Amino acid sequence: MPRLLLPLVGCVLLVALGVGAIMYADHDDAPGLGAIGFVLIIGGIVLGVRSVLRAKRGV
Predict the structure, then answer these.
(1) Using an 8 Å Cβ cutoff, are 48 and 8 in contact?
(2) Measured distance CA(16)–CA(25) in Å, rounded
(3) Measured between alpha carbons, how far is 49 from 8 in angstroms, rounded to an integer?
C-alpha cells in the first residue's frame, strides 16, 4: 500500500491541476489552455489506473 500511495497522490494532483487549468481557461476564454487541462486530466487518470494495475500484478 505505501508503494502505491505516492503515484496515486501524484495522479490526483495532476488531475487537480488539469481541472484548475480548465476552470481558468473558461474564465479567460483560452481554448488552448482548456485542451492542455483536458490532456492533464486524461493523463492523470491513465497513470493512476496503470499504477494500480502494476501494483496488483507485483511488478
Answers:
(1) yes
(2) 14
(3) 9
Written as nine digits, the cell of 11 is 495522479
Q: Rounded to 5 degrees, what are φ and ψ at 58? A: 85, 25
Q: What is the 3-state secondary structure (H, E, C) of the chain?
A: CHHHHHHHHHHHHHHHHHHHHHHHHHHHCCHHHHHHHHHHHHHHHHHHHHHHHHHHHCC
Tens of pLDDT along the chain (59 residues) come to 678 899 899 999 999 999 999 999 999 888 899 999 999 999 999 999 999 999 888 76
The label of the residue with cell 481558468 reads 24
Distances (CA, A) of 20 to 33, 39, 43, 48, 53: 10, 12, 15, 19, 27
